Predict the structure of Ribonuclease P protein component 4.
Amino acid sequence: MSYTEDLAKQRIEILMEKAEEIFDEDPERSHRYARLAWRIKLKTRVKFPKKWKRRFCRKCKIFLVPNKTCRIRLNNSKVTITCLNCGKIKRIPI
Ligand SMILES: [Zn+2]
């Protein structure tokens, strides 16, 4: 792993953690942090950390918080995540 790739991953991690941290206080700021993290991902082509991958809506570019900005359902072999802002549905096999 190259230095920049490592750094990019670290920054994404930090931004997403902050987004989580401040969501209740300032949701707009947390969406901004998530967008920044996503931009780093696009620019550097690193993979979004698994933990955070499902926490960002690619369509309307917001930070997804279960029961607040998204709904998460589990069925047989899939996790279904619905963005409550734009209605985008993401299905992830377990
Ligand atoms: Zn959305």
In short: Residues 3-22 form the longest helix (20 residues). The chain is about 45% helix and 20% strand.
